[in-house]
Design brief:
Blueprint: E1 2-9, H1 16-25, E2 31-38, H2 45-52, E3 57-65, E4 71-86, H3 92-102, E5 108-111, H4 123-132, E6 138-142, H5 154-171, E7 183-186, H6 187-192, H7 202-212, E8 218-222, H8 238-253
Parallel strand pairs: 1-2, 1-5, 2-4, 6-8
Antiparallel strand pairs: 3-4, 5-7, 6-7
Helix pairs in contact: 5-8, 7-8
Length: about 260
Amino acid sequence: MILSVVIPAYNERHTIGPCLVKVLAALPHVEKEIVIVDDCSRDGTREWLLAQVDGLTGRDASFELDEAGDARVVRGNARFAIRVIGHERNRGKGGALQTGLGATTGDIVVIQDADLEYDPADWAGMYDLIAVRRVADVVYGSRFYGNPHRALYFHHFMANRLISFLFNALYNQTLTDIEVCYKMFTREVLHTLRLSANDFGIEVQLSAQFALARRWRIYEMGISYFGRTYNEGKKINWKDGVKALWYLLKYRFDL
């Protein structure tokens, strides 16, 4: 099976390289198709990606950064191919995900942020549920199951809890973290998605379409989370939380 990794990136010049190192180290015996969508970055992210990793492939290889921060393929266990797609204008995370998901060809898809808040090592259990044990069609990571979790903003925690609670009530689910980046699902599920949200509302829209299909086996498991502060580059804010409440109603009742 091929695992497609979709990575939306916006102004992540200093984290995208280390992120890719972790991506290739995860599930080393699983072939990976890595699709990176640069959403019109202005900090050199796209230039680095095009110069360093676009078109890189490896078989029995891996990826590392040298002291200058340049990428190089080295011997390892991974099989991979990296493709970079650039937006000519900023479309938001949802727009980048729409582009990336539309470009995938793998059997299973996982969404990965370009920062270092999430650890791809956590994919192992998610992948096992879908590809090995074959009991799930969609697997969510959850930052609220007791795994390592950086203590940050109380209002973010409460907003996540509220959004997930309302989602569960409206869509008859029992998920704890619908705003989480880590969502892994099969190509069969991907083919049913009709996405239109260009902002962080994509998280609600994905969850709504998974739930409303009423035929996917949806699982959830704990993951670690190394959250960033706003000074460290965090982008989501309170306005996105307010929008999420509207999206919960919009996608439930087709408003």
